[in-house]
Amino acid sequence: MHIQTAAVQTLRHHEFGAVVPPVHLASTYELDPGSEDGAYAYQRGSNPTRAQLETVLATLDGAAHGFAFASGMAATAASLSTLEVGDEVLLPASVYGGTYRFVDQVLPGRGVTGRFVDDLGALTDEDFTPATRAVFMETPANPTLRITDLRRLTELAHRHGAIVIVDNTFMTPVLQRPLELGADVVVQSATKYLAGHSDLLAGAITTDDERLAEAFALAQKAQGGVLSPGDSFRLIQGIKTLPLRLERQQENARAIVEHLRAHDDIATVRYPGSHSEEEARIHASQATGSGAVLSFELAPGLDRVAFVRALRYPGYAVSLGGVESLICRPATMTHEAMTPTARENAGISDELLRLAVGIEDIGDLLEDLDQALRAAH
Ligand SMILES: Cc1ncc(COP(=O)(O)O)c(C=O)c1O
Predict the structure, then answer these.
(1) Among 298, 295, 271, 269, which Cα is nearest to 284's?
(2) Most CB contacts within 10 A, which of 37, 175, 280, 348?
(3) How far is CA 291 from CA 40, 164, 200, in A?
(4) Burial class of residue 127, CB neighbours in 10 A (0-12, 13-18, 19+)
(5) Is the peptide bond before 143 cis (omega within 30 degrees of 0)?
(6) What is the domain class of 243-375 according to CATH?
(7) How confident is the model over 52-100, as pLDDT tens digits?
(8) Rounded CA separation 157/132 (Å)
(9) Which of 171, 187, 189 is the pocket-test mutation for ligand 1 (most atoms within 8 Å of CB)?
């Protein structure tokens, strides 16, 4: 089944012939007084609407298990919940700022160390110790759009008994399916492309591993950061147009990348594969597209604030994946939790702007960027 068909047709045959699933709001369920059994008992543990969403999430990633959380960060935290006192997780220094904050400020209190490395692609056997139990990564990285070889890193980590968790928010299962490349866990901020309309906070985890699946179900039940039935329904509906939206967003992003690369007012443009031919080759071997996020710096002497202020369409806001274009300054908005040195090592300058491209008309977007660049002089 093609992914666009799966996004629409995974859930079928609802009560009364309804073509969309029902929303089951009950927080608790009556049980058989004798056996005390029932299909559902209490919403935090499981819920029919959330279960339907979790079936869709698993289907899209080709996974055995899917889990829906109340935010991407709740999913990220749950994905690291198997780590115990003395364990270590390896991450790229440019990992999403919220993940950096969690690993830097919360995990140490649980006796777990996060070791940030500048370039995951340069890891070798010597970088792993008996304490290294997990590698958490994003490819492309945010907002540098650097690429990591998923197959190579997975083989390396598995040789040392570490699991690989991939934050696939930027790619979604439409463009990249890390479990098929050997990763153990996929995390997504479903707030972004899966929901697609900047009106819903949600997180997703998928895995084929039974032991990890048990741990994630426990995280749902024991920590309680689950997605509500109403939001689960809205996410089911959002996912139905995910492949369509992303196709248009990616088409727009490619046109903007080409336009900015040829523009005298632009100093650098970053897009998956732009760093080197090697990264372009790796990305092409593990993903079917480059997505709809790019980052760039204006030419020296241009006024960044005047440029952003003059933009008519992209709103100056964090987040990405919605139908509307958004622009932000990672150094102060999404990656402010990192130290200035960590940002510098990761290649996130104070001038770097990240553009998350929406589904607007490309002619309007290009015209808008051009007039804002003129205003920046
Ligand atoms: C790559 C990535 N991962 C995780 C998150 C966290 O997701 P949420 O905001 O849904 O908690 C974000 C949010 O911006 C993100 O961009």
Answers:
(1) 271
(2) 348
(3) 38, 22, 21
(4) middle
(5) yes
(6) alpha beta
(7) 999 999 999 999 999 999 999 999 999 999 999 999 999 998 889 899 9
(8) 9
(9) 189
Asked if 92 and 120 count as a contact pair (C-beta separation under 8 A), the reply is: yes
Q: 142, 169, 336: which to mutate for ligand 1, most atoms within 8 A of CB?
A: 169
pLDDT of res. 338: 78
Residue at token pair 């190579």: 152
CA of 37 to the centre of ligand 1 (A): 37
Report yes or no: 194 and 172 within 8 Å, Cβ to Cβ.
yes
Does residue 140 have a cis peptide bond before it, meaning omega lies within 30 degrees of 0?
yes
Q: Residue 138: helix, strand or coil by DSSP?
A: coil
For the chain, domain boundaries: 3-239, 243-375
CA distance 102 to 328: 21
Residue that has been written with the tokens 């727009």 in this structure: 252
Q: Is the pTM of this model over 0.90?
A: yes
